[in-house]
């Protein structure tokens, strides 16, 4: 089975590798990073789709599906589980969603392993240390472990949330690796802009973690209106149970059923902190628009912020439609990507080194 899975993962990587090999880009290594970055972004979105369609346990074992390399081979077991519980976590469709997600993850892992190999092989002729590529490889290994624990620990919220944050950190490091293959900026950026950017990135990751906590606890519809929450500005909150990190899905730390007030708290904190994030990122983007070489990226941040506001509110008013929920997750990943680009561009500026 493991050999079959490895072959499938490599086959999924063939097309992106072909794009690199047949590209007119002189710097093939840069192209490899760009393609890996694109696939990683897609993988994050598909991971959101997997989570939102409740397909995370579509195959209840790991790394295969009922001990097989693909749902075709495990069709009888999957079908038996679906017949027993048609609306349960194991169905033919959900099994395919989960396994395609794993195949894509394996292909990204293979491409990152290839990057590391090239970085070490050409370490004497390349201007950059191979340790960034090595760090990415290590993180992918850790991410794979959390992917396994997501299944074996039955979607435990803290495991799934860490899995999401690690994916975004990998995305950010790939942005860093990709951008350092290009000439560095010579712009002298304002002191305020330079120092607020890292803070904006950290605050954004905090908000994504809060959003992941909402999603993994199935709290997206705990408040059914907006800007009020169930008709109240500040509903009855239950921090005692809402942020106990080590617990089973739907349970308190002591094993009892999680009260609905805890889900309301999880939802309300995410939507309230969103305004802090919106204000900080909008201000940082405003500062970035004053510099010619960060204006486009800053405009992108403003556009995605607006999209996030619209999709976040629409998710509540339209009772969490799948397409809008996936788009909201994609917007979060896109903000991470854009802020990573801004942080690298400003931090690596030649003018700022003096």
From TrEMBL:
Membrane: present as a keyword of the record? yes
Any one Gene Ontology cellular component term annotated for this protein: membrane
The GO molecular function terms of this record are:
metal ion binding; oxidoreductase activity
Give me the segments passing through the membrane: 6-23, 32-52, 103-121, 128-149, 155-176, 196-214, 268-288, 300-320, 326-344
Keywords for this protein: Cell membrane, Disulfide bond, Heme biosynthesis, Iron, Membrane, Metal-binding, Oxidoreductase, Transmembrane, Transmembrane helix
Pfam families named in the record: COX15-CtaA (PF02628)
Q: How does it sit in the membrane?
A: Multi-pass membrane protein
Q: Which PANTHER family match?
A: HEME A SYNTHASE
Question: This chain belongs to which protein, by name?
Answer: COX15/CtaA family protein
Q: Which organism is it from?
A: Undibacterium baiyunense
């Amino acid at each position: 089975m493991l050999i079959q899975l490895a072959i499938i993962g490599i086959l999924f990587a063939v097309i992106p590798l072909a794009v690199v090999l047949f590209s007119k880009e002189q710097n093939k290594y840069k192209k490899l990073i760009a393609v890996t970055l694109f696939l990683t972004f897609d993988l994050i979105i598909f991971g959101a789709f997997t989570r939102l369609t409740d397909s995370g346990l579509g195959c209840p074992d790991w790394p295969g599906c009922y001990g097989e390399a693909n749902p075709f081979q495990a069709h009888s077991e999957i079908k038996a589980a679906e017949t027993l519980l048609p609306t349960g976590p194991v169905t033919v469709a959900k099994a395919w969603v989960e396994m395609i997600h794993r195949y894509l993850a394996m292909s990204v892992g293979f491409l990152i392993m290839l990057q590391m190999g090239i970085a070490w092989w050409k370490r004497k002729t390349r201007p950059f240390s191979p340790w960034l590529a090595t760090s990415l490889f290590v993180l992918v290994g850790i991410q794979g472990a959390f992917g396994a624990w997501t299944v074996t620990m039955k979607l435990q919220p803290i495991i799934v949330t860490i899995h999401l944050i690690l994916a975004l950190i990998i995305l950010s490091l790939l942005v860093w690796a990709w951008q350092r293959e290009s000439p560095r900026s010579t712009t002298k950026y304002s002191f305020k802009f330079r120092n607020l950017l890292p803070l904006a990135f950290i605050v954004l990751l905090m908000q994504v973690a809060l959003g992941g906590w909402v999603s993994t606890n199935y709290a997206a519809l705990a408040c059914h209106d907006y800007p009020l929450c169930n008709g109240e500005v500040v509903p009855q909150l239950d921090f005692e149970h809402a942020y106990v990190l080590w617990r089973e899905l739907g349970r308190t730390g002591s094993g009892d059923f999680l009260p609905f007030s805890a889900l309301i708290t999880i939802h309300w904190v995410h939507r309230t902190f969103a305004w802090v994030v919106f204000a900080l990122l909008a201000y940082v983007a405003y500062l970035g628009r004053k510099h010619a070489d960060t204006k486009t990226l800053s405009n992108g941040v403003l556009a995605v912020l607006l999209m996030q506001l619209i999709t976040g509110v629409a998710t509540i008013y339209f009772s969490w439609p799948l397409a809008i929920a996936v788009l909201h997750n994609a917007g979060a990943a896109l903000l991470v990507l854009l802020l990573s680009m801004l942080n690298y561009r400003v931090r690596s500026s030649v003018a700022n080194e003096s």
